[in-house]
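Milestone M4 deliverable, item 7.
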Amino acid sequence: MLPNAPSRRAILAGAAALPLVMGLSRVSFARGRAWMGVELDKSDAGVLAKRIIRGSPADKAGVKSGDLILSVDGKAMTAPREVVKAIQDAGPDTDVTVKVDHAGSKTDLKVKLVEHPGDEEVLRLDKVGTFAPAWKGVKAAKGDVADIKKQKGNVVLVDFWASWCSACRAMAPVLNDLHEKFGAQGLKVVGLTDDEEPAALKVVDKLGIKYAINVETSVDTLRDYSVVALPTMFIVDKKGVIRHATIGLQSADSQAAVIKKLLAEPA
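Output delivered:
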């Protein structure tokens, strides 16, 4: 864990104690809300578009990461909450005009808002089809899968979990089964947690986890993978590309179907 950095528990406080229920409630809450697909931050000159979700309305309209959002439908924006309110007031299936400052050039962009698709679909839009980011600050506590970039040629199931997460513990038998069934065929299963090693290994021993476990995962890695709930899982192909992403409890059959397909592909 990075010194002075918030832990994953802090990032997800109150939201991931029961991730499956949390995931469903977040999707339900999202229904009907307008969505632009921009991670916002404060800026002295406007509102910073810190990150744009791939395939989102903002992405399609040409908003770029690092742009300053100056106004929405002619109303000046000075704080992220003002942009959020303007988008929600406009509603889904509405065109809004967003004035941005891109490297000193001011442009009006027409953004077609849509209904929020839910966290899992946002995760897939943003990550599926991209190369799996490098893991930062991880420590191998069990097994030898400490570097995703050294796993080319293998299919890798990456499970973001925590020792205090009940749904994560419920997933362990499923992941054990996948590890045992497909490990000899080239599947690597690895759990990433920001727990310290003693706490993680206590749960590993209690649950009889047989797959690799990395601990002390950095907040940067959680952000790189856009982890907002636990468990969050990715399946990475032999070329290092994320091909599947899920939030919450998953069945062995649903994960196995993806794994079989990827194992059959050439390296």
